[in-house]
Amino acid sequence: MIEEAPQIEHAILEVLDIHKSFGRGNRRTEVLKGLTFNVLEHQVVSLLGANGAGKTTLVNIASTLLLPSSGSVRVCGDDVVRAPRRVRENISLTGQFAAVDGELSGRENLIFFARLHGMGHSQARARADDLLKQFRLADAAAQRVSKYSGGMRRRLDIAASLIVEPRLLFLDEPTTGLDPLSRRELWETVEGLRDRGVAILLTTQYLDEAERLSDDIILIREGRKVLQGPPVDLRQQFGKPVCSITFDSAQEAYRAATELLPGAVALGVEKFTVEGLALSFTAARGADDLTDALDIMRREGVEVQSAALNPPSLDDVFLGMAFTKDEASEASGGPALQEARGES
C-alpha cells in the first residue's frame, strides 16, 4: 500500500524585518521595528495589539498601499514593492470601514465591483447573486445598503472583497462595532474561507475573536513582535492557571482569602479575589496550589462546595504583554519567548 505524501503548506505571505517610519529629523516616528512572520495557505494569523501598535500600518504595507522604510514583504513569491500589480492579483483587503456605497442596493454594489474586475454584465450579475446567497444577503439584494444593519453591511463588504476569490485576504478589525450575533456570523464566514484554502491576516483587539479564529497569534507592542504562537501555546507558556473555590458562605470565602490561604500557597492577601461565595487566585504552581489550598481547608474543617483549576486566559497574556512594557521587556530575553519567535 502506497502512503500519500504529507501535504506541504506554502507561505502565502512572508514578512521579513519590516521597518516603517513617518516624518523626518526630530519628528521622525518609527511605527514598525523589525516585524518578521509568515502566513501559510489554509491559515488564519491574527495581529493582536493595542491601538497604535502598528497593525494597520503592516496591513497597508503588505497590501501595497504603503511603502516600507526597510525590509521586505512577499505575497505568493512576489515582492510588494517590485511587483505590486502581481501582488494585487492575489490579495483582497477589507478595511476598518465599509467600502460599499449606501445609495446602491446590495446587488448593484457587487455588480459594480465585478465590473471593475473586468467581468461582463451577465457574468458580474451571476457572481453577485452567488455571493449574495453565500453571505445570506439574497433576501436584501434589492434593498439600499443604507438600510442594512451593521452586520449585513460588513458581510457585503467582505463579499465585495471576494468577487475574485484571493489567495490572501486582509481583514483589518472587521468586527469593530458589530453586535454579538453579527460578529459570530462573520466568524463563520472567515472559517469557511480558511476551509476553502484562503490565507487570512486578521487584525483585531478582541481576544475571543483571536482565540476562536487563529491558527497563529502575533502579539505586537510599539511596532515589535512580543509573542507568537497558537492560542493554546501562548496561554500555557505565558499565562498561569486560575484556582477557583466555592464555599457555603461569603464569610468562609473571606476567611479563607485573608487567614488560611495566604500562608498555604505563599501569596499576599491582595492576590485573592472574593465574589460572593467564590474565591479565586492565580495558581503559579498549578495543581500543587490547588492541593495545598484544599489541604488547609480540610485541616481547618472548612466545607468546600467546589474547586477547579482553570486554564490560563489569553486575556492575562494580552494584558501582561501588550501594555506593560517592563514585563514584556523582561520576557523578551527569556528562552521561551525566543523559541516562540524562532530565535536561537
From TrEMBL:
GO molecular function, a single term: ATP binding
Domain annotation ABC transporter: ranges: 13-247
Top-level taxon of origin: Bacteria
Subcellular localization: Cell membrane
Keywords, alphabetical: Antibiotic resistance, ATP-binding, Nucleotide-binding, Transport
Lipid bilayer topology: Peripheral membrane protein
GO biological process: response to antibiotic
Main location: membrane
The keyword Plastid is assigned to this record: no
Pfam family membership, one: DrrA1-3_C
Keyword ATP-binding part of the UniProt annotation: yes
One Gene Ontology CC term in the entry: plasma membrane
Protein name: ABC transporter, ATP-binding protein
Organism: Propionibacterium acidifaciens F0233
